[in-house]
Amino acid sequence: MPILDLRELAGHISALSEIMAGRQARFLVDLIRIRSYTGQERPAVERTLEELRAIGCDDVWMDSAGNALGRIGRGPRVLLYNAHLDTNEVADEREWPHPPLEPVVEGDTMFGLGASDCKAGVAAIVYGAAILKKTFEVFGDLEGLFESLSVVVMGATLEEDAEGFALRSLVERDGLRPDVVLLAEATDLTLRRGQRGRCEVRVRTEGRAAHASQPHLGENAILKMLPVVSALEGMNGSLPVDPVFGAGNQVVTMIEGPHTPNSVPSWCEVAVDRRLVPGETAESVLTGIRSVVEPLGARARIPEQPVLTHTGLRLDGPAFYPGWLLPETDPLVTAGQATAAALWGTEPAVGVWRFSTDGAYSAGVAGIPTLGFGPQEEKYVHTAQDQVDLGKLRKAAAWYALFPVAYNRQQPG
Questions:
Q1: Which CATH number does the domain housing residue 287 bear?
Q2: SS3 (DSSP) at 271
Q3: 345 Cβ contact list (under 8 Å, min separation 6)
Q4: For all residues of the chain together, what is the average pLDDT?
Q5: pLDDT score at 413
Q6: Are 397 and 20 in contact (CB under 8 A)?
Q7: What residues are paired with 104 via a beta bridge?
Q8: Residue 314 domain-assigned?
């Protein structure tokens, strides 16, 4: 069969996306109805596995970290589609226009917890795979796509609290290393080729306990912390600068001490949220902070992030999530642009995320080329207005269905 023009194939895929739109929306409704806070994702994982079986994946499984996975194709090069099933926790349901776990559709917009971060992304990649499989049932395996590629869909866990830890487990523990990673986080149908990283730093001062009635006998660790906090805040403006991401920043976000209100505190510890630019390492961050706080009598460390999966597996690791940046000329970016141009007649804008994603591991640690594309809008992420445009969701599914063809055509041979 002759090679189809990408735009002709895009027309068939767009039509299939409209045909499957009802199933896709019902799947997203089911996901939103399931409360799936980090570490409590099992029911959402099981529902995703059910949908992956229903769309006809060649293999469907749950890995040791409890991620939902489905594969289409048998080729050696692996394209991993990643979107996470865990959500941010709801602080006050009274702030929400609709109950968070009761999805509501108004016009072509679906409201509900996780719609923008990142259950609509899960629905996009699952139905991208469904459309891709149906397309090649109609046209056959054009250009031997499934002989050269495998598309693996990942309903990921743990991302909200420990981005990349579940993906790290898939790669390093279970041995599935993709050639490229696509992240269906919020991009509003544009492309993201990088992100700022983040890390947590704990800074501690030590004092000497005494009864509060005789404070002169003690040494107040909170008072010792005051100049340290000022020094930490004063580092802003002199942190590393990147031409794309701008300057890094850090904020003191928490303060802790002994829970004894009638005693002079013997210790005080603050948490610092540090936002990173690509190239910063755990060592470089600590070296900079220690140079400022140690002369003031404080110590700094990057703590271990405690991570327990819903399968009972511990994945604890340093609370350090590096930034990353894909070159503008990378074939992954070019393929993403070609996919959108074939579908909609125009290339999407290319930008970067200010927040952190599972790309902190795939690109930041493992060096796997990573690109972001999703239907959600960043302004609704972690807000009571959590929502997704269903028209954009249909478009995202079509993009994920066509992308492997555009990507495969760029490969040598």
A1: 3.30.70.360
A2: strand
A3: none
A4: 96
A5: 57
A6: yes
A7: 111
A8: no
